[in-house]
């Protein structure tokens, strides 16, 4: 039964449902099987594709190991890079007698390898996007200098399929215990961050 109420130019519809009839109708509905029955249409590729793993190690359980590559997306969806921390030189050795770590500090050089696996040209300053974190949670940004352990990354341009390798230099207190590294594309502004544990 339906009632229509009109008050001052506005109206409302009030429904009165017979619960006894509704209950009988529900009982009379044929059983369509369990909710887990097979779909009638084949699943799409998107439904059967493996779930994308978050940045970190391959299982998504935490930071990756040194030497492991992590696939990261840039701000542009066409930019994708396999990033790997390949070695850590602690302490790193200055190549210049005049530029050295300040008193009470040491240099740490982190060697990275970046492979452009996207479809666009990858242009970046990876040394800005890499952060070193110690056991106390103190975060360090790059410092400037030249070391014997490798060529320092500045800015890079890599076509799809190209690989670039270099070191990022940090200055940390002598007593600092290193814990992990974090890296993001686009000078650190990309939302995906890769993380590696330092043993």
Q: Which stretches of 5+ consecutive residues score pLDDT under 50?
A: 1-54
| Average pLDDT for all residues | 80
Number of strands: 12
Write the CATH fold name.
Immunoglobulin-like
- Biggest sheet strand order reads 3-4-5-10
Radius of gyration (CA) equals 29 Å
What gross morphology would you assign? Answer: globular
How many distinct helices?
3
Query: Can you tell me the CATH class?
Result: Mainly Beta
Q: What share of residues are in beta strands?
A: 35-45%
Element-level helix/strand string: EEHHEEEEHEEEEEE
Number of domains: 1
Q: How far apart, in Å, are the first and last alpha carbons?
A: 74 Å
Largest sheet: 4 strands, antiparallel
Query: Can you give the helix content as a percent range?
Result: under 10%
CATH architecture: Sandwich
Tell me what the structure shows.
This protein has 199 residues and is mainly beta. The chain has a single domain (57-197), classed as Immunoglobulin-like, CATH 2.60.40.1240. It is 9% helix and 37% strand. The chain contains three helices and twelve strands. The protein has helices at residues 19-28, 45-48, 126-129; strands spanning 2-7, 10-15, 69-73, 80-89, 105-116, 122-124, 130-134, 139-140, 156-158, 163-173, 178-183, 194-197. The protein has a four-stranded antiparallel β-sheet, with no helix packed on it. The chain has a four-stranded antiparallel β-sheet with strand order 8-7-11-12. It has a two-stranded antiparallel ribbon with strand order 1-2. Residues 1-54 have low confidence and may be disordered.
